[in-house]
Amino acid sequence: SVWKSSVWKSLHHLNVFSLVFSPLSGARQQKLMAFRQKARTISGRREGPYRVLVAMQCLKREEFDGQDTMDKMFDYSVKRFGKADCLGTREVLSEENETQPNGKVFKKLVLGDYHWRSYTEVDKAVGLLGSGLTALGQRPKENVAIFCETRAEWMITAQACFRRNFPLITIYATLGEDAVAYGLNECGATHLITSIELMETKLKNILPEVPALQHLIYVDDETLTTTGYPETLRIHSMKSVMELGAKPENLKRPSPSDLAVVMYTSGSTGQPKGVMILHSNLTAGMAGQCERIPGLGLVDSYIGYLPLAHVLELTAEISCLTHGCRIGYSSPQTLTDESTKIKKGCKGDCTVLQPTLLAAVPEIMDRLHKTVMRRVQERSSLQRGLFQMCYDYKLEQLKKGHDTPLCDTLLFKKVKLLLGGNIRMMLSGGAPLSPATQYFINVCFCCPVAQGYGLTETSGAATITHYSDHSTGRVGAPLVCCEIKLRDWPQGGYTSRDQPNPRGEILIGGPNIAMGYYKSEHLNGDFLMENGQRWFCTGDVGEIHDDGCLQIVDRKKDLVKLQAGEYVSLAKVEGALKSCTLIDNICAYANSDQNYVISFVVPNQKELTSLAKKCGVEGEWEEICNHPSMEAEVVKVIAQVATSFKLQRFEIPQKVCLSPEPWTPETGLVTDAFKLRRKQLRSHYQSDIERLYGGK
C-alpha cells in the first residue's frame, strides 16, 4: 500500500504541469461543455418534445444550403475536394491456407498498401456506372439491388444510383438464403450488384426463385464461370458495365421527395422489412450527424468495415464524404494485426491506414476491451499493478475534465497502436455500450466515445453524445435534425411523472423520419403524423435527464414478467454480465410461467479452459462447454458479477447453457450489428430451455 501511495502521488505531481496549462489545452472549456444544458422541452411539459438548444426554432434539413439531395451533396464534395484521396482499398499480395491443430483450415491474407481514388476519379466511376446501368435498361425510379460486402464499389454503386434516381435496395451480405430471396422478390429489382463470393455461396441456389432478376453485376476484377446460373440471366462484370457507360447522356436527377434507399433490416424479429428512406430524410440525417462530429475534414481518415447495408455505416461514410474525409476499406477479419484473416507477422488495416475516426458496435468495443485486458493479465504482477494504477488515476482525472499526457505517452500509447495510434474519436451505435467498456476506451485509447442512438427508420442517428461528455449509460441530446418526446407506458411502470426524471417510450420526430415499410403498409402503425411532422414510435424506453440528454433504460419487447410478478429487463441483465471476462456473449431468457431467469452464454475459450483446469475438468472444447460442472461454475461467476452490478436476486440467471460456437451473423443468431436475434436463439436452444427449466 505504501508503494501504491507513492506511485499515485508521483503520477499526480507529474501531471500538475499539464493542469497548469489546462486553459491552453481546452480542458476547462471541455468540462464546461460537458455539464452545460444541451436540450430542453419546447412545450414546457416533462414528456417533451425536447430539442437541442441550437435548433429550438427550427430543425435542420441540409448540411449545406441548396444541397437537398444525395447526388447534389456528392457533387458539392467533388467540386471542393477534387484531387484529395476519397476511397482506398488494400492490395491483396497473396492468400495462404493455414491448418489449425484441430484440423480446420483458415484462409490467411498478406496485404499491401492502400491504393486511393481521388474524389474526381470516384466521380468519374460513378458517372460511368450510372450510364452503364442505363444502357442495360435501368430507368429512373426503378429499383437497383445491392447484395455485397463493404468495399469501395458499394459506395460507387450507391452514388451512381443516387445520381440517376435509381432507388437503391440494400440487403445484408450475411442474411440467409430465404431472407435474401424474400427481399429481392419483394423489391422486384431487375438489376443486382454483388460479388463473386456471394454469387457462389448464396445467390446461385436461390436465383431460380427470383424470376424478376434480369442482370447480375459482380464487382470483382476476376473472370467468372457462368456454369450453373439460369440461362435467362445476363451476367456482367462492373468493369464491362462501366465501359457501356462511356457515352454521356442527359441525366434525370432526383428531387428531395424521391426515394433514395430501401434498406432491409436485419430481421431480428422475423422477415426483414424494407425501410423507405427519401433523399430529404438522408440529407437531414447527415446534417444532424455532421454537427456532432467536431473538426471533420480533409485531415481525417475513416476506416470502413461495418456492413454498408446497415444505416450506421452508410450514414457515417456519407458524412465523411460530405466533408472531404478519406475512407479506407477493411473488414472485421482484417481490421487489426491479430484479426483472423491476417497472416501472423503481417499488418492489419488499422496499422496501415492509421485512421482518425472509427465507428463500432458495442460487440466490437467489448472485444477490444477484453483483448487488451488479456494482454495485461499475461504481464508480471508489477506491470499489472502499474497498469491498474495508471488506469485508475487517468479515469479519475478524466472525470474531472483533465488530461494525463504522461500516462498517455508512457503507457497508453502502446494500447492506441492496436487501432493505428491516431484515433481521435469513436462512434458507438447499434446497441447499448456498457459503462466499463466506454471508460476503458476513453482511458486506454485516449479518445472520446460518442454514443449514438437511432434506427433505420430515423435514417441513422437521432442522438449522439457530445465529445466532451464522459458520462456513461447515456446517448446524448437530440441532433439538430430531430426532436424527441416520451409516451407513458404504465404497464411497464414508466411515465412522465417518474422521479427524478421523466420516462416513457421514445418517439422521434423530424425530417429524418422514413416514410414507412416497403409494400408493408400494414406494419406502418409505428409511424405517426402530427401537425405536419412525421414521428416514429421506437419501442425503446427512455429517460431524459436535467441537461436534456437521453438514456435508454429498457425495451418494451425485452421486458418479461416472471411468475411471481417481477419484471425482468433482459437487456439490462445482458449489459451487466457482458463485462465479465469469462463471457464473450450472452442472451438472457425468461418464461412468464417460471420464477427465474436462465441464460445462453458464449464463453471465452481461454478463460473457460483455465477455469476447467482448476476444476479438474478435461476434454475437447465442446466437451468442456457441455460439462455440467462447468455450467455450475459459470453460474457462480455470473452471480458474483451480477451482485457487483447490484442486480436483484430475481434478475440473476440461475442456470446457463454454454455454447462452444460463437454467434456470428453467418449463424443467423445475431444481426450484422451483432444484436441478438431472440426468436432464432430461442428456437436454436429450445431443447436446452426445456432442460434448464425442466431440471432434466
From TrEMBL:
The keyword Signal applies. GO terms for cellular component: endoplasmic reticulum; lipid droplet; plasma membrane. GO terms for biological process: long-chain fatty-acyl-CoA metabolic process; neuron differentiation. It comes from the Eukaryota. The keyword Phosphoprotein does not apply. SUPFAM superfamilies: Acetyl-CoA synthetase-like. Residues 1-27 form the signal peptide. GO terms for molecular function: arachidonate-CoA ligase activity. InterPro entries: AMP-binding_CS, AMP-dep_synth/lig_dom, ANL_N_sf. Keywords: Fatty acid metabolism, Ligase, Lipid metabolism, Signal. Its EC number is 6.2.1.3. Residues 100-518 form the AMP-dependent synthetase/ligase domain. It is an enzyme of class 6 (ligase). PANTHER family: LONG-CHAIN-FATTY-ACID--COA LIGASE (PTHR43272), LONG-CHAIN-FATTY-ACID--COA LIGASE 4 (PTHR43272:SF22). This is long-chain-fatty-acid--CoA ligase. It comes from Denticeps clupeoides (denticle herring).
